[in-house]
């Protein structure tokens, strides 16, 4: 009995144990506070402002809530368990581990703050963040007040979750309010099938030839469409951002609020108006305007919690990195291939064998394939809708449909880079033209072409003007003709001949026009007017960079842009030349075994040159002894003195091993061969 501890001793041990657990709870709150600032807040902030991310991946409420729980809880639990495990080695190791974790988290926070408030990037920013982490760890160890502040801030993750669920633009996607508006009423007995194809990021000027018409040589299927429909040449989108532009097109109203493109915010839209009379086959991309009561959304591979977690992990790497990300969030919306979607559609081969539809089936967007498969006659009037992210960046297709790889960090600004971006855009537009051709072919083969109202347009354009690239206000002010004016073709049932209508069309006119042609009366007031009505008398237009803030834009049908000049060396044979130095090339492996039938070609060549090569020096890229492209050497950037060249014509390649040579073009026209390292 004497060896057993007494009551007082047991009480002291009980008090020590309670104090130990209280200390652990305090440490966990401190970790939760820092992880909330480093992970939870930045992730939920970006995701909360990006409802289109969840709409694109067709995430439901359960999946979004699980993702939020993982973001808010999992890091704290993981770090907390690490701390508890260190306690098995004794209180000294436990305290030291906690101090180390605090220092690392303070350093991670300093990286994000420094990237926002200072010009530091890369290693210098990491060094400064390391110092901040050391100071933070010392302060936490030295003064109890620092720990008390962190423990109070431990409620931060709960606040961030609450803001995401109830106050962010994504909130209505998680907690929808309502299930769509009222259906329209029939005003006649003839309700034709409606086929509406909305392309993305396509300026009208990209399609124009020197004569101001559609360039039939480069884009024969767009020219074919124009020759059989009414081309509204003076048509403009109302916003450069799809989550504002597309709802305006499908509601007939100008953007008024920064709402998510979701049916709970836009209950009155094309799908709800037509849903009472029409069957709806809708393939939306980054909107969810068709409510579940009207549309059945098919399950796609690029959805589910696993996809959300993977994409959020990539976002975390971006927001915590010491470098700025060059990736536009919209660029992450990648169209799935037919192979990824598990689609085994044996499409008939078009007359043009170069398209190789069957052999390139792996490379066609699966969403487009699903749309084509649905273009069949039906006993009830049917609305076929597709919003296809083509020719929207990221640019990855050649006109033939072959894919190519490109580094994600390529800039789109500055001499040389702007020209490359436009060349890649035009190449992908060439592939989009082939998709248009497939649509026309399918409509004719199924008999829908004569019966249907067919509309092909784009939500907005994009500027490739130097110093004003993109779709923001700078681009609108400097190059509104590239951003606002979009191709718009309307083929009415039974229409045989094409015509041009230069009325002042704005994309709020789209829904009223479709409703008029389908003999449906809209049960709400719209800002647009039907093309069956008299044209607007006022010449002015408006564009919305922000909802409820219209920017007046002037001008009419844009003039064609100058065609990119083809260097006289392109297409000429080259032989060995005098040495001119060395060059480092990326992606060389692709030249060793080219298989054109795989749908993949090494069509983008990039690399770095020695610093002594002057800015603007021309570089000739030869494939199999023939010059395929001539590009300038651009000014140095943090990645070095770089160049990049697109070989848009896949006839330069052959099956098997291909030879790649690079030459410096001298002012007099001579060539000096570079040694590839």
List keywords for this structure.
disordered N terminus, alpha/beta, seven-stranded mixed beta sheet, globular, 677 residues, 20 strands, 17 helices
Secondary structure topology:
Blueprint: H1 7-48, H2 51-56, H3 61-87, H4 91-117, H5 122-142, H6 144-152, H7 156-166, H8 171-174, E1 185-186, E2 194-200, H9 220-226, E3 230-232, E4 235-236, H10 242-251, H11 270-274, E5 279-283, H12 305-320, H13 366-373, E6 382-391, H14 417-446, H15 448-451, E7 453-458, H16 473-483, E8 488-491, E9 499-501, E10 505-506, H17 510-517, E11 520-521, E12 541-546, E13 549-553, E14 578-586, E15 604-609, E16 618-623, E17 626-632, E18 641-646, E19 660-665, E20 671-676
Parallel strand pairs: 2-6, 2-7, 3-9, 4-10, 5-6, 14-20
Antiparallel strand pairs: 1-11, 3-8, 7-8, 12-13, 14-15, 15-18, 16-17, 16-19, 19-20
């Amino acid at each position: 009995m004497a060896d057993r501890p007494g009551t007082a001793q047991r009480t002291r041990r009980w008090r020590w144990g309670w104090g130990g657990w209280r200390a652990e709870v305090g440490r966990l709150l401190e970790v939760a506070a820092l992880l909330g600032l480093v992970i939870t807040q930045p992730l939920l902030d970006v995701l909360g402002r990006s409802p289109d991310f969840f709409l694109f991946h067709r995430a439901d409420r359960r999946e979004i809530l699980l993702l939020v729980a993982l973001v808010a809880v999992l890091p704290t639990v993981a770090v907390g368990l690490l701390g508890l495990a260190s306690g098995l080695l004794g209180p000294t190791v436990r305290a030291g581990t906690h101090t180390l974790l605090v220092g690392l988290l303070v350093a991670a926070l300093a990286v994000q703050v420094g990237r926002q408030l200072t010009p530091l990037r890369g290693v210098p920013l990491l060094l400064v963040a390391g110092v901040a982490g050391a100071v933070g760890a010392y302060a936490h160890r030295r003064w109890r007040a620092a720990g008390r502040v962190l423990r109070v801030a431990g409620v931060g993750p709960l606040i961030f979750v609450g803001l995401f669920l109830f106050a962010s633009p994504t909130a209505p996607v998680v907690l929808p309010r309502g299930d769509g508006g009222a259906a329209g009423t029939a005003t006649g007995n003839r309700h034709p099938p409606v086929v509406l194809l909305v392309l993305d990021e396509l300026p009208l000027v990209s399609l124009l030839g020197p004569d101001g018409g559609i360039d039939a040589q480069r884009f024969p299927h767009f020219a074919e469409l124009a020759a059989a429909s009414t081309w509204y040449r003076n048509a403009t989108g109302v916003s450069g951002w799809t989550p504002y532009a597309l709802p305006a097109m499908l509601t007939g109203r100008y953007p008024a609020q920064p709402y998510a493109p979701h049916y709970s915010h836009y209950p009155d839209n094309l799908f709800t108006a037509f849903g009472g009379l029409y069957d709806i086959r809708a393939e939306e991309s980054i909107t969810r305007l068709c409510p579940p009561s009207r549309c059945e959304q098919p399950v796609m591979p690029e959805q589910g919690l696993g996809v959300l977690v993977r994409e959020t992990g990539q976002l975390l790497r971006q927001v915590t990195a010491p470098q700025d990300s060059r990736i536009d969030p919209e660029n992450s919306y990648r169209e799935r291939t037919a192979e990824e979607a598990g689609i085994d559609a044996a499409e008939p081969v078009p007359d043009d064998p170069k398209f190789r539809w069957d052999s390139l089936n792996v490379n066609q967007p699966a969403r487009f394939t699903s749309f084509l498969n649905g273009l069949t006659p039906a006993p009830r009037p049917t609305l076929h809708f597709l919003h296809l992210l083509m020719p929207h960046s990221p640019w990855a297709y050649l006109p033939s449909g072959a894919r190519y790889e490109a580094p994600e960090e390529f800039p789109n600004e500055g001499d040389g880079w702007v020209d490359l971006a436009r060349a890649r855009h035009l190449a992908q537009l060439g592939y989009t033209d082939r998709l248009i051709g497939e649509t026309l072919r399918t409509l004719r083969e199924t008999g829908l072409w004569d019966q249907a109202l067919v509309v092909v347009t784009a939500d907005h354009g994009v500027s490739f003007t130097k110093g004003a690239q993109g779709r923001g206000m700078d681009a609108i002010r400097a190059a509104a003709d590239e951003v606002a004016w979009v191709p718009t073709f309307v083929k009415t049932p039974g229409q045989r001949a094409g015509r041009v209508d230069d009325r002042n069309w704005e994309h709020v006119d789209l829904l009223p026009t479709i409703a008029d042609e389908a003999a449906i009366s809209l049960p709400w007031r719209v800002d647009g007017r039907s093309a069956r009505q008299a044209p607007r008398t006022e010449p002015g237009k408006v564009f919305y960079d922000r909802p409820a803030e219209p920017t007046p834009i002037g001008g009419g049908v844009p003039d064609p842009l100058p065609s990119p000049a083809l260097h006289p060396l392109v297409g000429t044979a080259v032989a060995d030349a005098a040495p001119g130095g060395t060059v480092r090339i990326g992606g060389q492996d692709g030249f060793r075994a080219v298989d054109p039938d795989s749908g993949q070609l090494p069509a983008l060549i990039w690399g770095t040159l020695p610093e002594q090569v002057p800015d603007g020096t021309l570089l000739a890229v030869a494939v199999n002894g023939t010059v395929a492209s001539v590009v300038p050497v651009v000014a140095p950037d943090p990645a070095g003195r770089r160049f990049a060249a697109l070989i848009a014509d896949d006839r330069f390649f052959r099956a098997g091993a291909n030879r790649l040579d690079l030459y410096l073009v001298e002012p007099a026209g001579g060539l000096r061969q570079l040694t590839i390292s």
